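To whoever is on call:

I kicked off a structure prediction for a single chain this morning and the downstream step that reads the tokens threw a length-mismatch warning. I double-checked the sequence; it's 133 residues and nothing unusual in it as far as I can see. Pasting both halves so you can look.
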Amino acid sequence: MGGRWFFAATRPTGRPKAVWALPKGLVDPGETPAETAVREAAEETGLEASLDEKLGDVRYVHTRRGGERVFKIVSFYLLRYRRGRIGELPPGMEIEVEEARWLPLDDASQLLSYAGERDMAERARAFLDGRAL
């Protein structure tokens, strides 16, 4: 892709069109956070990937409808594309994902909607700066 790094991003269903996010989701029973990252990336983007490196954790408080506050920790991993076509989602995923696409990693700080995810993209870029494409 022209000697540049790209990342797979999603536009979550029911959010404004300008919202772009990284794939993420709940850890299933018996699953590690790293396994969850690989599974969620496949479900939300249509891509098969392999685990490369843990980038870090984002901690925040989410307020559910009704006012209940929930503390969340989301672990992010650098994954390496293996195969698949971006946006070819498994049946039923349209409830969660409106669109998935490749975006330039250099533009992540302007495109990603959430501060913690922008930080993870910067960590990915710093990690990848020392690698050949």
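Update from on-call: the warning came from a stale cache, not from the record. Cleared it. Sanity check on the structure: Residues 6-128 form a domain with the Nucleoside Triphosphate Pyrophosphohydrolase fold (CATH 3.90.79.10).
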